[in-house]
Design brief:
With about 210 residues, the protein is mainly β. It has 2 domains: about 110 residues, TolB, C-terminal domain (Neuraminidase); about 35 residues, no CATH class. The chain contains 3 helices and 10 strands, in the order ααββββββββββα. The strands form 3 sheets. A 4-stranded antiparallel β-sheet has the order 1-2-3-4, with no helix packed on it. A hairpin with a 6-residue loop joins strand 9 and strand 10.
Length: about 210
């Protein structure tokens, strides 16, 4: 019993009596200003030659009530870093060209989220898309001659198929989209006439 009491007594000794560095370093609780001052780093992209890393740094803006993201560049050998993008809006999703000379990225600096390219050796960024609904997830072609992007298409509330099959109230079509091939009904669909089908149907053989 005496051993147990001695052990419990040791556990209740105030930590402040021991000079452990770091245990008493924090003297106040974190505030909203502390949180807003924190920067988050993400989306690291290694260059094809392995010498550089393009990544994003996001800072919170209380004035704008949003996060602002910029693209930075780090030298792998020396650890030196420099800011690669600036200006209005945010810049994200950096992607290296196959030859390592250009970085493509998505920026909201002009006309919503559009695709931009920037030569690493110097020069101004250039916008290469103007899609009404914006773009994301850029992907370079293997030969570096172009990029593939994704864009969410907002279909009109009333499609041709609705007007042809109903005379009451307009309905919204939903389901898989078939374009440039064989649609879910078996009829050929072209890029100019493709529309979402009403419900998914299994492909033959599935």
């Amino acid at each position: 019993m005496k051993r147990l009491l001695i052990a419990l007594g040791c556990l209740t000794v105030p930590v402040s009596l021991f000079p452990f560095p770091g245990l008493s370093a924090q003297k106040r609780a974190i505030t909203i200003d502390d949180y807003l001052a924190l920067k988050s780093v993400g989306n690291p992209q290694l260059s094809p030659d392995g010498k550089w890393v393009a990544y994003t740094v996001t800072e919170q803006s209380l004035k704008d009530n949003r996060g602002i993201t910029r693209i930075w560049l780090a030298d792998v050998a020396s650890g030196a870093v420099r800011q690669l993008t600036a200006g209005p809006g945010s810049d994200r999703q950096p992607r290296w060209s196959p030859d390592g000379r250009t970085v493509a990225f998505v920026s909201t600096r002009e006309n919503g989220a559009q695709l931009w390219v920037l030569p690493i050796a110097g020069g101004e960024a250039r916008r290469v898309t103007s899609l009404a609904d914006g773009v994301f997830d850029p992907l370079w072609l293997p030969d570096g001659t172009g990029l593939i992007v994704t864009s969410d298409i907002k279909w009109p509330a009333q499609q041709e198929i609705d007007r042809a099959t109903t005379t009451s109230r307009p309905t919204r079509a939903s389901g898989p989209v078939s374009c440039g091939g064989t649609g879910t009904t078996g009829a050929p669909a072209s890029a100019s006439t493709c529309s979402p089908s009403r419900s998914p149907t299994a492909a033959p053989g599935t």
